[in-house]
Amino acid sequence: MNFLFSSVIPVKGYNRSILYDLHRENYEFIPNNLFISFRRNETLYQITTINKEYLDFLATKDYILKIDKSEIQLFPQLNLNWDYPAIISTSIIYFESFNLKTLTILSSLLVKNIGVIISNFDLRKLKYINDIIQVENIKKTTIQSFNILILNKNQSDESFEDGLKQNPYIKKITYSNLTINDYKNSVNIILSNPNLRLFSEAQSHNIYFNRKLFIDDKGNFSNSLNGNIVFGNVKKISANNLKKVIYSTKFQINWFVQKDLIDVCKQCEFRYMCFDNRIPIKRNEKEWFMESDCHYNPYIAKWKGEEGYKTLTECGIQSNKEGFKINRKKLNTINKELWGDD
Ligand code: SF4
């Protein structure tokens, strides 16, 4: 009998599906009529009636495990329980608040990853960051990696960047020509390569907000970059009080709003690999919605800017505090025009 390997997990979207290959950290789009031929059988997905073309595709990708049904218990289900050995995994800090004192307080939370945002580029700022991120300073902390985001600038500065690349702690330098306000307020969707850690986390958490701490230019800290709630100031708070705030339900409000609970995202095939900075709005105990559209419309499988793209409203989809509705007749007509009868 044919099964999918336990690390290959089919995820259904409205218009198409994805096979998440968690072991090889990759993915493949598949049509929904292939998705329906996978049936959960104890611990693995069994491949039921399927045409030769699809079977060959799965075999070429090395997704198929051929075993006797009696052997199925030899292949346990993937453990998707998620936890992390620190209350905060990543802290995003404005350059103005980036100093050893901030890194020390973050280290008391066992933070491992730091993102630094420079809103107005100046070579001296990069030099300052590089001077702080030196082995003799960082080895006293729990921090292992730094990513730098430079705004208001769309080109790298190779003269200095080469120097930064020698620093083993600096993992990535990204440039954007957005201003800080545009960056904070724009819809920012990043799809990462799927992997077991993120996939497990995304089953029960919002992976953009979960275990993140944001610190602005004045040292004020919050649970999101674009949120308006200030929870305190890292310059004035003790490590113990900072911990208390982070453990509060109010601070963690978005952490457990996984994509499976949010309108539109819950029908999107990317939902377990997607970092999305929009703040979910609670409609009731079980439902959340977003106030702005994502750049991807899962109902027609089109990205903004792609030929044939339409907004959710243009597709007959309504998602707001009153509720969620799909005009299926309208959506079917659009999909038929875009994709034909399949
Ligand atoms: S609709 Fe957009 S934000 Fe939601 S899961 Fe899909 S790609 Fe991510």
Structural commentary:
- It contains ten helices and 22 strands.
- It has 342 residues and is of the alpha+beta class.
- The chain has three domains: 2-74, no CATH class; 90-246, no CATH class; 259-339, no CATH class.
- It has a seven-stranded mixed sheet with strand order 11-10-9-8-13-14-15, covered by helices on one side. Strands 2-3-4 form a three-stranded antiparallel sheet. A two-stranded antiparallel sheet has the order 1-7.
- A hairpin with a 2-residue loop joins strand 21 and strand 22 (323-326).
- Iron/sulfur cluster (SF4) is lined by residues 189, 259, 264-265, 268, 270-271, 274, 276, 294, 296, 298.
- The site of iron/sulfur cluster (SF4) has 12 residues, from strand 16.
Give the topology, please.
Blueprint lengths: L1 E3 L3 E5 L4 E5 L4 E5 L1 H4 L2 E4 L2 E4 L4 H9 L3 E3 L23 E5 L5 H8 L5 E6 L4 H10 L2 H4 L6 E6 L7 H8 L4 E6 L4 H6 L3 E3 L4 H9 L7 E4 L4 E3 L9 E2 L5 H8 L27 E3 L4 E4 L2 E3 L6 E2 L4 E2 L13 E4 L2 E4 L1 H12 L3
Parallel strand pairs: 8-9, 8-13, 9-10, 10-11
Antiparallel strand pairs: 1-7, 2-3, 3-4, 5-6, 12-16, 13-14, 14-15, 17-18, 19-20, 21-22
The structure holds iron/sulfur cluster.
Radius of gyration: 23 Å
Largest sheet composition: 7 strands, mixed
In total, how many beta strands?
22
What proportion of the residues is helical, as a percent range? 10-25%
Oligomer classification? single chain
Overall pLDDT level: 94
Which spans of ≥5 residues are poorly predicted at pLDDT below 50?
Answer: none
User: Looking across the biggest beta sheet, what order are the strands in?
Assistant: 11-10-9-8-13-14-15
What percent of residues are in strands?
25-35%
Helix-and-strand structural type? alpha+beta
**Intertermini distance:** 28 Å
Q: Identify the overall geometry.
A: globular
Task: Compute the number of structural domains.
Answer: 3
Number of helices: 10
Bound molecules: iron/sulfur cluster
